[in-house]
Specification:
alpha+beta; 35% helix
Length: 477
């Protein structure tokens, strides 16, 4: 029969004690262990941001740190902004066709090489950039970079496009079926009248047919050229060695466009404002947006603080931890029929949007609209209090620093800046700039935004949603 012996707490004494028949020495936790030298901590070096431009036009950005892993991202200045009504959705399709067979590798070989290296890989499409990325151990970066370079020259065979097209259609329709995402896309469509930045970041139903191999290949040959590329890395990389590796992998010869193809011009970003409403039998989804700032605008930091000041809250996230927006101006208004309120901003190379997105139960669209108008008018009519500004600055800094903790997110942060042709800042440098933002700066930027005509998008129960003109009049200061 087993017996359980009670163990007495060890007295805080240097004299030996007896435990289960054996003697042990005790020592207060405040004293050093005898004959155990203290180990000096390894020096913690801060990540080092460096950028350079290769002779062939490829820009290289690295954020080096002493870690055994690295993330690599290849940014292409291409996206839905460069599409038109005839080829809308092309870059969305190219994203989904990434990592199929290339000029030098079959799809199977690509997958196998990534697998052998223990690397992850992905592709993403946006309005101004395409991104092909991978994470791998630092000592395997020299093997991953040539593979990513090869991915930029897909073979795009007819049978591969056909095999992938059903899943591409399903993915595109899933984007449109999400009410929140649809509203955000429609805000762009109305703000820029379906041109440039107003082109959808998915395949519209009118273009939901399989494109030809030649059409896709022509787009790749036009846009996937050295002077439209940014190659960024974070983690265990050394800038000079990485830049040399990029120069060997992304050569002008391998990425040269045919001489007879026309050069690419960036479509202008002309904010025109607009209004869209679609009645449906579900909650009211309402967005009110305004012309905002670009990456190069000096008011960018004040805009980010304004966004943090307004904040937001979604009822479905209320079980999450601190920092979810309970104390923000919009978050404090989420109650009763109002299910969600949140400020949003989209920053591009030469334009931007800022607004508030809300959701309310059916029959409460008018209350939702009034709340959005009231909060926007308040931030523009008087400066924030010292306490509110301090909180907003802290939240804006946290959003940048927490949002770039992962290596992939850090690559996206610096690569996006480089692709937008601005001086690249590290997350620490970017966040530090918020400290110089004053309450008067935030108010001034709010007034600047609200001076533009609003873009209004409403989906769901739209009864009671005011017109864009009525919103504009209500916000005249």
């Amino acid at each position: 029969m087993n017996t359980i012996r009670a163990i007495r707490p060890i007295a805080r004494s240097s004299s030996p004690v007896q435990l289960l028949g054996r003697k042990y020495s005790t020592l207060p936790l405040s004293e050093k262990l005898p004959s155990t030298p203290l180990q000096s901590e390894a020096p913690q070096s801060r990540p080092v941001l460096q950028e350079s431009k290769l002779p062939n036009g490829v820009r290289v950005v690295t954020v080096a740190s002493q870690v055994p892993v690295a993330a690599v991202g290849v940014f292409v200045e291409a996206g839905s902004r460069y599409e038109n009504l005839e080829n809308s959705g092309t870059f969305f399709a190219l994203k989904s066709l990434a990592f199929t067979s290339t000029l030098n590798r079959t799809a199977l070989r690509l997958a196998r090489e990534f697998e052998v290296l223990g690397a992850t890989y992905s592709a993403a499409s946006g309005r101004e950039q395409m991104l092909y990325s991978s994470e791998v151990q630092s000592d395997k970066v020299d093997e991953v970079v040539p593979i990513l370079a090869d991915v930029l020259r897909p073979r795009l065979t007819e049978w591969e496009i056909r095999d992938q097209w059903h899943s591409i259609e399903e993915e595109s329709r899933a984007v449109q079926a999400n009410a929140r995402t649809f509203v955000f896309e429609q805000v762009h469509a109305e703000a820029y009248r379906n041109r440039g930045l107003g082109q959808p970041n998915y395949i519209p139903e009118s273009n939901m047919h399989q494109p030809s191999e030649s059409a896709l290949k022509q787009i790749v040959e036009q846009y996937y050229v050295p002077n439209r590329l940014v190659v960024a890395a974070s983690g265990g990389v050394q800038h000079e060695a990485f830049a040399e590796l990029v120069a060997k992998s992304f050569t002008a010869e391998s990425l040269a466009a045919p001489a007879d193809l026309p050069s690419v011009a960036k479509p202008p970003a002309e904010y025109l404002a607009g209004e869209y409403r679609q009645a449906a039998n579900f909650d009211t989804h309402l967005a009110v947006a305004f012309q905002a700032v670009s990456w190069a605008d000096k008011d960018l930091y004040a805009l980010k603080v304004l966004k943090a000041l307004l904040g937001g809250l979604c009822r479905s996230l209320t079980s999450a931890g601190p920092g979810r927006g309970f104390t923000t101006r919009l978050g404090s208004k989420v109650s009763g029929p109002i299910q969600e309120l949140s400020a949003f901003s989209s920053v591009y190379s030469d334009s931007g949007l800022f607004g508030v997105l809300g959701r309310a139960t059916p029959g409460n669209a008018s209350q939702l609209a009034d709340t959005i108008i009231q909060e926007l008018a308040t931030v523009a009519s008087k400066p924030a209090s010292a306490a509110d500004l301090k909180r907003a600055v802290a939240q804006a800094k946290a959003a940048v620093l927490f949002g770039t903790e992962s290596r992939s997110a850090l690559v996206e942060f610096v690569g996006t800046q480089a692709a937008a042709h601005r001086a690249v800042q590290s997350p620490e440098q970017f966040a530090a700039a918020f400290e110089a933002v004053s309450a008067e700066d935030v108010q001034r930027v709010a007034r600047r935004l609200l001076s533009s005509r609003p873009t209004l998008v409403a989906v769901g129960d739209v009864v009671g949603v005011p017109s864009a003109d009525a919103v504009h009049k209500a916000l005249k200061l």
